[in-house]
Amino acid sequence: MIDYFLLFTPLLLLPVIGLLAFAGCRFEPRQAEVTHVETAVQRQSAGTSSIAAELNKKITGGELLVAVVQWRPLVATDEPSLPAGFTAVNDIPFPWNGMQVKIFTGRNADKTTDLTVTATLPHNSAATWHLCVSAYSLVSEDAPISSPVSLTYTGSTPNTPGVKIGPQDLVYAVAFAADSNGTFPGNDNTLTAGPNCTARSDTSTNPLVEDGKDNNNPNNPFVAQVTNSNPDQNAQGFIFAMGLNVA
What we know:
Helices cover 9% and strands 38% of the residues. By secondary structure, the chain is mainly beta. It has one domain. The strands form 4 sheets. Strands 1, 3, 4, 5, 6 and 8 form a 6-stranded antiparallel beta sheet that branches. Strands 9-15-10-13-12 form a 5-stranded antiparallel beta sheet, with no helix packed on it. The longest helix has 21 residues.
């Protein structure tokens, strides 16, 4: 007579064997990385003194905020003011093409899903001006940024000095371009993201916000780059980059 218990014993042991194999596995959880959440870019015409950008699509609260203001001061000492909580990365604005660029960082309040950031000048801007606001998650609160660098350039493909970051960090960059005679934003200055970078300013190509890193060479300083479509090799440009450090 066939002993069905003995016959099916190997099948009954399969779940037990599988459980033991699972218990013996060692899983390496994926480490958290700095991640882009949302970017908004707003343009305002000359002769105005206030500009606002809204984030309301993907933010959930707690993100690092990077705000960039580009303007032409009517009075030499004019500088933009932002909401409380924003701190300037560069105390002295970067001069470029008769204009100025200033970088700020802040922190989105917890559980805030709709945020408007407003930059205000003491007097009207004397040229077309912009406000770029980006949100990034999983950024350190104690030391959110590192190695800020900038470059004023002539030509179509600038490279920033290398920015040293860790494997879970990210490089943030913003770039502007003008005609060779200084006209901004000019007629044919479309900026595209450089190697290993992703364009984040979906509705704007000048200025262009991008971020990136080289996963194949995580120990090497990362060089941020953009390309200007303008064939004039005397076109003028400015690019800023910095590391965003993982929490």
